[in-house]
Write a structure and sequence with these properties.
The complex is a heterodimer of chains A (about 110) and B (about 120). Chain A has no helices and 11 strands. Chain A is mostly beta strands. In chain A, the strands form 2 sheets. In chain A, strands 2, 4, 5, 6, 9, 10 and 11 form a 7-stranded mixed sheet that branches. A 4-stranded antiparallel sheet of chain A has the order 1-3-8-7, with no helix packed on it. Chain B has about 120 residues and is mainly beta. The chains are: A mainly beta (about 110), B mainly beta (about 120).
Chain lengths: ~110, ~120
């Protein structure tokens, strides 16, 4: 049982380039989340989805887009990368039941130069 | 919007001594509270949660946490720390007082725990 898998694990981008981060979960979870982790700031929510075909903005959505075309996948896109988007990105998922905990992927370390 | 405060950047404790990591929260309704641990270059792992019922909850690896509604706190504790407990600890809250808050998990900035042999 793989849980939550993020692809890629590491990436270096040049300013202005675009990329897509893929999150896949095999637990049939309804809810999926994208967070970014920066030193001293904890995890901040970028976007989330409460089901296939639906997405919503989190705390820091600017510069990112997401899509949830399939229940098991949640994609995070950077259309024009900026150095401020250098971070570690985490995907998480959970069941819809009230009170359930979220399961996290291993993270993607992104550097924008 | 819900929020979490973890006031200390780093907690140093000698091996075998009690470990406490502090967390306070702010929500509009009832809180669902969680603790996660992160080891270097890894994702977050769930430790324990408070949903309802007994204010003292027990979790993985000998950790426990006490929910205190009047002080809006959810401190993480371990009676006897191990060197292997050295990691980054995150407190998180879900606000059950709103639909939007219910869907979202807000994290504190994290506390680095260093257990000294």
């Amino acid at each position: 049982n793989a849980g939550v898998t993020q692809t890629p694990k590491f990436r270096v981008l040049k300013t202005g380039q675009s990329m897509t981060l893929l999150c896949a979960q095999d637990m049939n979870h309804e809810y999926m989340y994208w967070y970014r982790q920066d030193p001293g700031m904890g995890l901040r929510l970028i976007h989330y989805s409460v089901g296939e075909g639906t997405t919503a903005k989190g705390e820091v959505p600017d510069g990112y887009n997401v899509s949830r075309l399939k229940k098991q996948n949640f994609l995070l896109g950077l259309e024009s990368a900026a150095p401020s988007q250098t971070s570690v990105y985490f995907c998480a998922s959970r069941r819809v039941d009230v009170g359930t905990e979220a399961f996290f992927g291993q993270g993607t370390r992104l550097t924008v130069v | 919007a819900q929020s979490v405060a973890q006031p200390e950047d780093q907690v140093n404790v000698a091996e075998g001594n009690p470990l406490t990591v502090k967390c306070t929260y702010s929500v509009s309704g009832n809180p669902y509270l969680f603790w996660y641990v992160q080891y270097p270059n890894r994702g977050l792992q769930f430790l324990l949660k408070y949903i309802t019922g007994d204010n003292l909850v027990k979790g993985s690896y000998g950790f426990e946490a006490e929910f205190n509604k009047s002080q809006t706190s959810f401190h993480l504790k371990k009676p006897s720390a191990l060197v292997s407990d050295s990691a980054l600890y995150f407190c998180a809250v879900r606000d059950m007082g709103s639909t939007r808050g219910n869907n979202r998990l807000a994290f504190g900035k994290g506390n680095q725990v260093v257990v000294i042999p």
